[in-house]
Amino acid sequence: MASYCPNPVCNYRLKLTDWKPICPKCGVNVLYYKMEERLLADADRVEAEHAVFQKRFDRFRASLIGSKLAIARLALLFLPIAALFLPLAKIKVDAPFFNETISLDILGFVGIFDKIDVGALFTLLGVPALKTTVIWTLLAIVGVGLVLFSIASEFVNTFFASTKNHNRRVYCFALVGLVGLALGAVAMRVLNAAGTNLFAGGLSAHTSIGAIAVTLALLLIAAINVIIDRKGGVPVKYKECFINGVPADEVFAAQKEGISMQDFFAAHAAQTTSETQEIIHEEE
């Protein structure tokens, strides 16, 4: 990339042989030309970036602890996660030489689904006697996936839920989790009936206390987000930031109108000087 003399009037293209810090055409110092102005411009840019970051941080902080309801919502987020480690379902096997009741939490479900050969399940769809069982096994997998997706999405979106749109996303994700739980409960009932028909009472499956606890936790999260939404969201207290001694909001408003920082600060300095002179004249 070619280098040029920083003097806009000169704009001489520097060559490799121009090793001295002085421009051979106009004589300005290439390194220190308007150094003070460039340093001030860099400082203004850094302060502007800090002001933007501060607003984001203030919204992030408000979404977590900006009000009593926000703090309660943050605490409730851990309830469905804890409930996943309670027994979600029980599977009872009553067969010759084998009689056992298995309680499954989320780790148990993930372990089972990890061992399932999905390709083999789709192959079994062609077997009429097993078609219903296979379909509802796949739907049970989908249901568990929806619950996990719901809880993870709620957790992430709550960190940005200071606005109404993000807040609504949180309780929409709670509803997705409830749909997944309902799908899993129906799948258990169908699989229980199918197991009874296939093995004459040798296999039964039904939901347990963990599924109820996850349902209640998701309902509480949805309810508290609806309440926050009805109250207009979480109030955000913005920390006032300054750019070159001027409130950042005024600078950003001027930029939206197409005014550059340099022009804005020049106009602001001229206005401040004029107001100062008026005050001096009034005192005299």
Summarize the structure.
By secondary structure, the chain is mainly α. The protein is built from 10 helices and 5 strands.
Annotation field: number of helices: 10
> Level of helix content?
55-70%
Series of secondary-structure elements, N-terminal to C-terminal? HHHEEHHHHEHEEHH
Unreliable sequence segments: none
Largest sheet: 3 strands, antiparallel
- Which structural class best describes the helix and strand composition? mainly alpha
Cα separation of the termini: 58 Å
Q: Residue-averaged pLDDT, rounded?
A: 79
Strand content: 5-15%
The radius of gyration over CA amounts to: 33 Å
Q: Please state how the strands of the largest beta sheet are arranged side by side.
A: 2-1-3
Give the overall form: elongated
The tally of strands reads 5
Q: Which labels suit this protein?
A:
two-stranded antiparallel sheet, 3-stranded antiparallel beta sheet, mainly alpha, single chain, 5 strands, 284 residues
Question: Please, could you describe this protein's structure?
Answer:
- By secondary structure, the chain is mainly alpha-helical.
- Helices cover 64% and strands 8% of the residues.
- Strand 1 and strand 2 form a beta hairpin.
- Helix 2 packs antiparallel against helix 8.
